[in-house]
Structure formats: structure tokens, C-alpha cells
């Protein structure tokens, strides 16, 4: 069968000034850094140039190798693979039926690395999602098995240590992105936290211990998501949702559903995203603080905005505002402290941008940038990029490039696949004005920032 040469791959290799042998070596080096053997040679590269297909994981490594060489983001579809369509990564596994199964699954997940992001679009069957949500909403708490005999004794001091570690890793995530601390966090979870769950403790200590362990597990899912490994992130989050049943913590379970909603929205699964946010609202109603309910409502608003539903999104935004007005920090858990009016404004600026409501998008994005605490570096980077896109919506190209430039300069150390996608999306928009020297200058700043990130 005759194949057409892969013109896109050939063109990008020419632009990168890389030979078949040179590209093959770059790919092998990248795979070795991940601990994955790769047998790519110059013969393999030539076959791809001639139009042969490629395995999705190999395509991801090939795209990364050319991204580094070109100092800009290149995807497998940019290389002419998969017939212009993204491959899919499917996650289909039953919701853990027992507490033992949930802990075993988390133990297995903590042995997996997030260093190799999944290629393509994550597909979660509706049947699996519905079963997990229904199981959580209708579940009875497992309860804590207290005072086991002949086991290591755990006390509140151990719980405080886990919470302190979780706070430290959360701060690293906000400041440097999920890729920075995920490896160390999963080692800590597997070797220091999980063994304590099967030790001996009082009911009071056990309840606090499972709560602290759930926060670490949630952060593992979130950092995997931010690193771009969506399959791993989804599996962490669903297992952690099951973990919340130990202590019947409906508010924390709602938080996990909100995280799953956030991920589904990011991946373009808007109907699932809205369903998950509503499940958080309804499942935690009467059991969650107003601040938590505001967060859940804001996730519904994000999903409905992405789905181009201005009426539904407006209702959800109003609901989130009303909940936050009633918030009382004395009743909130520490993990909710980040969800301030500034955070809500950041969520709303995304909503108005996606709804193409230019004036509101600009006002909320500028407000979010002005009030976001710099210690939340990734959040500030997101808000700056949304401000830049909102300025573009209003025809303010020069201002948009200046704002995006500030985000890139301040965020070049963020090991966040999500932040890099924000930048890539903005580049795609402004490159329609490629004749403007300011656009070329911005693209060069992005290339330099990516090069610095590789060096660090």
C-alpha cells in the first residue's frame, strides 16, 4: 500500500534543522530520562517521514523532542499523526466497593510516575462516572476500626506531621506547579502515610488520620492533573472519593467531585463537568460550609460557561457569590483557605471569557490579577493569561501581548502543563497577527522561557 509522505513532520524537522539520526537520539535520551526503553533509530524516523503510523506514547516523546528543539509547544497532531484527530485514553474501572480495595488501589497508584503525560483526550464512560457518583451519594460510612491489637500505635502527633507535610506540598504546587513535587509526595504517601492507616489508633485519632491521608491523596491527584497525566489523576481522585467514605466527610467528597469537574471541563467534557459539580452541591448540601458550596457552584458556572450557556452560568455565578458572602473562616477546614473572593473572581473571569462577554471578562480578569496573592503564582499566571485573552476580545492586541509577556516571565519556572497550555492557546490566537513585530517578539520570549525551564 502506497503512503503519502508526512509533510508536517518533514516540515517541522526541517525547521528544527534536525536529522533522522539526531531526532532519534533526542527521543532515546528523553525516554531514558523517564526510565522507559525506546528503540527508535534513524530508520524509524524515516518510516514516519514516509507516512507510517506511530504508537501514541512514541508520538508524545517525538513531539516533546521537537518542542525542546524548536522552543515552542508541538503536539502529535502538529506532526501529522492520528489522521488529524487526537488519540483517546480511556479510563474504565469500577468504583472501589470496599475500604480495603480503595487502599490497595491508592497503594498501586502511588507506585506510578506522572512523568509521562498521557497522549490524547481522556475518555471516562458515563456509566462509570454515574456509578461512582451514585455510590458516593448513597453510601454509608465505613467507620474507623479503632484500637487494633499488636500494631504500631498512631497518635495526633503523627496526624499533625502529615498535615504539615501536606501544607508544604500544597504551597509548592501553588508556587511551582504540579510537576515540581509530585514524585516526592507520592513517595511520602506510600511509605509514610499509607502504613499508618492499618496501624492502631483511637477512633478520634483514626478519624483525623484518614482525613489527613485523604488530603495527601487528593493532592497527588491534583498534581498529576497539573502535570498533564489525566488518566492517573482521574484514578487518584476517584479512589480518594471512596476514601472520604471512611469518615463520612461529605464536604471533602464534594471537593473531590469539584476537582473531577475541573478536570472534565479542562478536557472539554462539559456535560460531565456540570454533572460532577451538581453532584458536589447536592451531595454535600447541609454538610458543607458556605465557602465550600461557593467553590462547588463556581465549578458548575465554569462548566456551563464552557458549554455556552449564559443563563445557567449566570445563575451558578450568582449562587456562588451568595454562598461566599456567608462564609465564615472559623468554620472552614484549612484546605479551603485558598478559596477567597480573589479566587472566585478568577473563576468568574474564565466564565466571562468563555461566554465571550468582553467587558465583564476584562473587568473580572483585571480585578483577579490585581487582588491575587503572588504566593499563588500559578493562579496569578492563569489570571494574567485570561486577562490577555480578554484584552484580545476587546481588540487590545498590544496590551494583550504585554500582559501575556508578564505571565510568561513570571511563570517560566512553573512545571504546570496547564499553564503551558494557556500560553500555547494564546499564541495560537495572536499568531493570526504574525506580521506584527510585537507578536514575533512575544513568541521569542516564550521560546526563551521554555529554554530556561528545560535548563532548570
Quick one: overall form? globular
The quaternary structure here is single chain
Tell me the radius of gyration.
23 Å
Mean pLDDT over the residues:
88
Residues in helix, %? 55-70%
Q: What's the β-strand tally? A: 2
Order of helices and strands: HHHHEHEHHHHHHHHHHHHHHH
Given helix and strand content, the structural type is mainly alpha
Write a structural description.
This protein has helices spanning 7-16, 20-33, 42-49, 56-70, 99-109, 126-138, 156-176, 178-197, 203-227, 230-243, 250-266, 270-284, 290-306, 310-325, 341-354, 358-371, 377-393, 397-411, 417-430, 437-455, and strands at residues 88-90, 121-123. The chain has 456 residues and is an all-alpha fold. Helix 7 runs parallel beside helix 9 (203-227), helix 12 packs antiparallel against helix 13 and helix 18 (397-411) packs parallel to helix 20 (437-455).
What's the structural blueprint in terms of helices and strands?
Blueprint: H1 7-16, H2 20-33, H3 42-49, H4 56-70, E1 88-90, H5 99-109, E2 121-123, H6 126-138, H7 156-176, H8 178-197, H9 203-227, H10 230-243, H11 250-266, H12 270-284, H13 290-306, H14 310-325, H15 341-354, H16 358-371, H17 377-393, H18 397-411, H19 417-430, H20 437-455
Helix pairs in contact: 2-3, 2-4, 5-10, 6-12, 7-8, 7-9, 8-9, 9-10, 10-11, 11-12, 11-13, 12-13, 13-14, 13-15, 14-15, 15-16, 15-17, 16-17, 17-18, 17-19, 18-19, 18-20
